[in-house]
Write a structure and sequence with these properties.
The chain contains 5 helices and 6 strands. With 212 residues, it is an alpha+beta fold.
Length: 212
């Protein structure tokens, strides 16, 4: 049936008409429930049971534990800061001392000239006043001279240039004529004293041997 202006005509295929109209055929089997065998249901349940479970999240620390942890962090930071401050202060003091020692070493030749002028009686008047003021200023920086004649010879302080003979007046090796005065700033030796050395007389035993 064919379609005409007055209605459907004979000879038309119902299935073809349904497909051309855009309507899909109804699948009656879709509405039917799919039955799963009992054996397959047990396998599915067993597989689900064997699936690994996610690890449990770690318990959050208590407020007391958090407070102890923060306190330990603060104590560690404070200790690091204290050590840093001590190190900076030590380095600063060492740098200041080294600079001060360098300046004092540059003035030692001036002190040598003043000492020679004093030995020759030329340290008088205004020159003497300037020399005294200089010595006072240097004492404020803990500069001290050493190496006087008659002192006990100490290789840490004195540099022996020559042997000045023997003397019955000394019991141990002593300083004789002083060629150049030594200076130190506190415990630091800026310059060794250059001296002659006097030994005890041959018949005199050193004080250490007498004690033995």
């Amino acid at each position: 049936m064919t379609a005409g202006p007055d209605g459907p005509t004979e000879g038309a295929d119902p299935e073809v008409s349904q497909e051309t109209s855009g309507e899909a055929p109804v699948d009656e089997a879709v509405d039917e429930a799919v039955e799963v065998p009992a054996d397959e249901e047990e396998v599915v349940d067993a597989a689900a049971a064997e699936e690994p479970t996610e690890p449990e999240q770690a318990a959050e620390p208590t407020p007391e534990q958090q407070l102890a942890e923060r306190t330990a962090d603060l104590q560690r930071l404070q200790a690091e800061y204290v050590n840093y401050r001590r190190r900076v202060e030590r380095d600063r003091a060492q740098s200041r001392q080294q600079g001060e020692a360098a300046v004092l070493r540059s003035l030692l030749t001036v002190l040598d000239d003043i000492g020679r002028a004093e030995q020759h009686g030329e340290l008088t008047g205004g020159f003497k006043a300037v020399a005294d003021a200089l010595h006072q200023a240097l004492k404020a920086h803990k500069l001290e001279g050493f190496g006087a004649e008659g002192d006990v010879f100490d290789p840490r302080l004195h540099e022996a240039l020559f042997a000045a003979g023997e003397s019955p007046d000394v019991q141990v090796t002593s300083v004789g004529p002083v060629v150049r005065t030594g200076y130190r700033m506190g415990d630091e030796v800026l310059r060794h004293a250059q001296v002659g050395v006097i030994e005890p007389a041959s018949g005199e035993a050193p004080a250490g041997d007498q004690d033995e």
